[in-house]
Amino acid sequence: MIRRASEPSFRRENAPSFKVLTDGLQFPEGPVALSDGSVLVVEIKGGTLKRVDASGKTTLVADLGGGPNGAAIGPDGRCYICNNGGHLWRDTPAGPLIAGMRPDYKGGSIQAVNLDTGTFETLYTEHDQGKLTSPNDLVFDAFGGFWFSDTGKKEGRKLNFGSVCYAKPDGSMIKEVIWPMMSPNGVGLSPAGDRLYVAETATSRVWMFDIIGPGEVAKKPWPSPHGGELVCNLGGFRNPDSLAVDAEGYIHVATLMDPGIARVAPDGSSVVHTSFPDLYTTNICFGGPDLKTAYVTQTQSGRLISFPSNVAGLKLNYNR
């Protein structure tokens, strides 16, 4: 068992020089770096999956509808999508902002996209405990299944708690594993695949769960609200969004409001926050031949940016 610090040391760094690969995207999220040097991104507002090549040229892969929020390559080479079901939007001088629930909202879903043809299917709209409300982020394990967060939904004065689920990519099994959580968002696995990390946006916390089998975690007793072990609280007005893990086991969490990327030690002892100029810095992935190129989505400005990373990202279980 890792001994976790009660309060992490905190250091702030300025953003490195970065390249804007493309802009004009409609609330981009879920970057996935491919072996040919291109990057997949979803557009939550636009309802699409797009590909951005190394020159910045952007092409449509699939028009998914709703609000595609997270993406990952599965063992069959398809791109799996967490779709939150869509939002109402309000345009502001600083960019688009979520303004509530769409009147035609029917729930969230998990979709699978054939990257060669752009065709897709909806695999899941519910789990063993009820409907999917707002699937957000996902990660595949070495067994071929995937963990994903369902953020929950605010309806007027009511708040539906979120959860973390596990599913198989062939549509044969889905179950809710962790509940209740306050807006679970980014999910990732440790290098050994034995720990699941979950970023909780509303509480500014990063949690860890010991994995004891495919789709199974060991839960801590009360006072843990859901069985997780606290890695750290990011503090301040710094809300964690999606995340990626590097080869050394550090957790790179995109942060909102105090925007940037927080590199969190796996034992929670330190946080190094690199600031970026976009209030909604939402996600990060690693690519390139040595996995030392970082790609970050900036949703208010509609940009996908890249920059050299000092550390290699963790190689994902599946890619193409």
Explained architecture:
The strands form 9 sheets. This protein has a 5-stranded mixed β-sheet, with no helix packed on it. Strands 21, 22, 23, 24 and 25 form a 5-stranded antiparallel β-sheet that branches. A 4-stranded antiparallel β-sheet has the order 2-32-31-30, with no helix packed on it. It contains no helices and 32 strands. By secondary structure, the chain is mainly beta. It has a domain at 30-248: TolB, C-terminal domain (Neuraminidase, 6 Propeller), CATH 2.120.10.30. The mean pLDDT is 95. It is globular, with a radius of gyration of 18 Å.
List the helices and strands and how they pair.
Blueprint: E1 9-13, E2 19-22, E3 28-33, E4 39-43, E5 48-52, E6 58-63, E7 68-73, E8 79-83, E9 87-92, E10 95-101, E11 109-113, E12 120-124, E13 126-127, E14 130-131, E15 135-140, E16 146-150, E17 153-155, E18 158-160, E19 162-167, E20 174-181, E21 184-189, E22 195-200, E23 205-213, E24 216-218, E25 229-233, E26 239-245, E27 251-256, E28 260-264, E29 270-275, E30 281-287, E31 293-298, E32 303-308
Parallel strand pairs: 1-29
Antiparallel strand pairs: 2-32, 3-4, 4-5, 5-6, 7-8, 8-11, 9-10, 11-12, 13-14, 15-16, 16-19, 17-18, 19-20, 21-22, 22-23, 23-24, 23-25, 26-27, 27-28, 28-29, 30-31, 31-32
| Helix percentage | under 10%
- The assigned CATH architecture of the domain at 30-248 is 6 Propeller
How large is the count of helical segments? Answer: 0
Strand content: over 45%
Average residue pLDDT: 95
Shape assignment: globular
User: Which strand order does the major sheet show?
Assistant: 1-29-28-27-26
- End-to-end separation in angstroms reads 35 Å
CATH superfamily of the domain at 30-248: TolB, C-terminal domain
The parts where pLDDT drops under 50 for at least 5 residues are: none
**CATH class bucket of the domain at 30-248:** Mainly Beta
Number of strands: 32
Classification by helices and strands: mainly beta
Write down the CATH topology of the domain at 30-248. Neuraminidase
The major β-sheet equals: 5 strands, mixed
Instruction: Calculate Rg over CA atoms.
Output: 18 Å
